[in-house]
């Protein structure tokens, strides 16, 4: 068996290098004391210092955080309801509407929401972004919660009902604690998706509602400075921390994704 | 009994109703409006022609197939679709070539290492999408360490220095990088289930490594390949940020033109037509992939 494996290591290591080299380069250059992303000149923290005095960047980070928290909170509630309804009841339209936003090209959702908001005279800004993010996060939460419910022991809820618990009480005291890891994983997923989203945000954002990805996009399009490397490095650290929290709170949830 | 059924019904709509209503309002209705928009004319100042005539005050829903006619008569746009298809196809093949040995190695590693090796594939995928694309902008830029070294080698052979950034090549590299995990995961999930006894049997019957792969492993992995191909090809088709950042003027794809129609030219009906064609193709391809997957399972 192992003899068969040996030659596979070479392409596999190359593939891992392909996956990690770009990210390592971004991190390394974020400490490089040069405006060009070329030669290594010397170590510096100045790009990070610049970052913390860049008002636009700070505003964008704040916007992203606000949108991420609001959108993930609402979509976790709605997504959990959707996942539960899909598991418990025979729903015809809901599974389709839960999956469709994940399946269609992202750009379709972006431009159709743009038309929708403009026709309804909803000004493009924080509110429109949050409404759009909730719409695409619900499906992901619903799928995670539904798969968690599918692995649950049904007899526990039935036992609670037999012992006289109302459906709500049985849900709150038995079902919800059991599916909680799925709900937490779904919430973290929604938060990451919201913070990370570029395409849908791009079409639903207005003046003064720039998020971090939009800010990075603008910087990359106008002039690449190592400040982009610094904010990228910080964002990678944040994501890594979130993943570690998620795996601590809901072991096994990472594999499900 | 009947009150129980009624109560069940009530619960169904109390729990399922709110998310359903939300997705109807913020997904289904916007998409339907867009279908409608693709049959209307652009307004005087871009966007859509107003639904209410400003002079007479009458409602007007003048539908027209004009934008569809323009799409199908102007070869420029069909060509652009073909080009996007070609990019997505090359990306899918490149992902398969890179992902196959990797997935095979993970699937045949000792069980305790597998989760870690899979996690290592997904981990970069959790950093921001734009950062991952931007990283390639650094690597492929003319003054980068990689490109200067490459051009030195190219120079020894007496050839012109290569330009990599802002070319279709750069777009493909970006597309492959971003979509690689979508190929690895289904392939690994498939390869992991293969029974090693089959390979041993083939070996006992005298098949060499090459034959064992093409006659046993590869045919069995086809469902994984189809799933991975669908997960790479369909999203790659509609992407616009990667060609926007890495592709320059030469490497644009259909997504860039959709963006342009909505934000720059502001011809919303035509932009809607392009999005509709793209979506219909994506849905058809997804349906095809599901059909092929079901057939190969039977």
Determine the number of helices of chain A (DSSP H or I, runs of at least 4 residues).
13
* Helix and strand run of chain A: HHHHHHHHHHHHH
- Compute the average pLDDT of chain A: 86
Radius of gyration of chain B over all CA atoms, rounded: 25 Å
Strand content of chain B: under 5%
Uncertain regions spanning at least 5 consecutive residues of chain A: 253-257
Compute the number of helices of chain B: 12
Largest sheet of chain B: none
Mean pLDDT of chain B: 87
The helical percent of chain B reads over 70%
Unreliable stretches covering 5 or more consecutive residues of chain B: none
Shape of chain A: globular
What is the percent of helical residues of chain A? over 70%
SSE pattern of chain B: HHHHHHHHHHHH
Describe, in plain words, how this protein is organized in 3D.
The complex is a heterodimer of chains A (257) and B (298). Helix content of chain A is 78%, strand content 0%. Chain A is mostly helical. Chain A is globular. Chain B has 298 residues and is mainly alpha-helical. Chain B contains twelve helices and no strands. Chains A and B meet through helix 2, helix 4, helix 5, helix 6 and helix 7 of A and helix 1, helix 3, helix 4, helix 5 and helix 9 of B.
Keywords:
heterodimer, A: 257 residues, mainly alpha, 78% helix, 0% strand, disordered C terminus, B: 298 residues
Question: In summary, what is this structure?
Answer:
Chain A has 257 residues and is an all-alpha fold.
Write the layout of secondary structure elements.
The complex is a heterodimer of chains A (about 260) and B (about 300).
Chain A lengths: L1 H5 L2 H21 L16 H7 L2 H34 L4 H11 L2 H14 L6 H25 L3 H9 L4 H30 L2 H6 L7 H11 L3 H24 L3 H4 L1
Helix pairs in contact in A: 2-12, 3-12, 4-7, 4-9, 4-11, 5-7, 7-9, 8-9, 9-12
Chain B lengths: L1 H36 L28 H8 L1 H34 L2 H12 L6 H12 L4 H12 L11 H25 L3 H9 L4 H29 L3 H6 L7 H10 L4 H30 L1
Helix pairs in contact in B: 2-12, 3-7, 3-9, 5-7, 7-9, 8-9, 9-12, 11-12
């Amino acid at each position: 068996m192992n003899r068969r494996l040996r030659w596979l290591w070479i392409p596999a290591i190359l593939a891992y290098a392909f996956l990690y080299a770009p990210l390592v380069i971004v991190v390394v250059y974020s400490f490089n004391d040069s405006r060009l992303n070329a030669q290594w000149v010397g170590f510096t923290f100045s790009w990070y210092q610049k970052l913390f005095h860049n008002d636009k960047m700070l505003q964008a980070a704040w916007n992203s955080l606000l949108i991420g928290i609001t959108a993930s909170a609402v979509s976790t509630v709605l997504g959990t309801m959707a996942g539960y309804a899909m598991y418990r009841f025979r729903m015809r339209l809901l599974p389709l509407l839960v999956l469709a936003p994940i399946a269609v090209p992202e750009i379709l959702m972006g431009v159709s929401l743009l038309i929708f908001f403009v026709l309804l005279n909803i000004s493009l800004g924080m509110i429109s972004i949050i409404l759009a993010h909730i719409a695409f996060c619900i499906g992901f939460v619903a799928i995670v919660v539904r798969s968690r419910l599918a692995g649950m022991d049904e007899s526990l809820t039935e036992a609670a009902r037999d012992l006289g618990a109302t459906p709500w009480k049985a849900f709150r005291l038995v079902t919800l604690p059991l599916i909680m890891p799925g709900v937490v994983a779904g919430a973290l997923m929604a938060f990451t998706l919201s913070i990370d989203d570029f395409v849908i945000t791009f079409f639903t954002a207005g003046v003064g509602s720039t998020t971090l990805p939009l800010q990075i996009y603008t910087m990359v399009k106008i002039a690449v400075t190592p400040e982009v490397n610094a904010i990228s490095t910080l964002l990678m650290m944040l994501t890594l921390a979130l993943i570690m929290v998620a795996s601590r709170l809901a072991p096994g949830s990472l594999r499900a994704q | 009994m009947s009150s129980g059924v009624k109560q069940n019904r009530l619960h169904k709509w109390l729990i399922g109703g709110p998310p359903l209503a939300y997705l109807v309002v913020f997904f289904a209705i916007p998409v339907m409006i867009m279908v409608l928009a693709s049959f209307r004319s652009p307004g005087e100042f871009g966007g859509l022609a107003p639904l209410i005539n400003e002079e007479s005050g009458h409602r007007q829903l003048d539908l027209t197939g004009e934008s569809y006619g323009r799409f199908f008569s102007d070869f420029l746009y069909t060509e652009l679709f073909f080009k996007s298809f070609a990019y997505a196809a090359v990306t899918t093949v490149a992902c398969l070539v890179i992902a196959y040995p990797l997935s095979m190695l993970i699937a045949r590693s000792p069980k305790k290492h597998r989760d870690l090796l899979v996690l290592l594939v997904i981990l970069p995928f959790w950093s921001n999408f734009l950062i991952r694309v931007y990283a390639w902008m650094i690597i492929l830029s003319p003054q980068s360490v990689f490109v200067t070294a490459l051009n030195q080698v190219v120079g020894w052979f007496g050839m012109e220095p290569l330009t990599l950034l802002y070319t279709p090549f750069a777009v493909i590299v970006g597309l492959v990088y971003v979509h690689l995990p979508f190929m690895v995961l289904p392939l690994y999930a498939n390869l992991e289930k293969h029974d090693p006894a089959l390979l041993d049997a083939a070996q006992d019957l005298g098949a060499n490594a090459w034959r064992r792969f093409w006659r046993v492993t590869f045919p069995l992995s086809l469902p994984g390949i189809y799933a991975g191909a669908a997960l790479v090809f369909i999203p790659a088709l509609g992407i616009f940020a990667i060609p926007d950042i890495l592709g320059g003027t030469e490497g644009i794809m259909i997504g860039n033109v959709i963006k342009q129609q909505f934000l720059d030219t502001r011809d919303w009906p035509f932009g809607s037509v392009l999005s509709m064609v793209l979506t219909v193709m994506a849905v058809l391809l997804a349906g095809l992939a599901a059909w092929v997957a079901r057939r190969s399972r039977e």
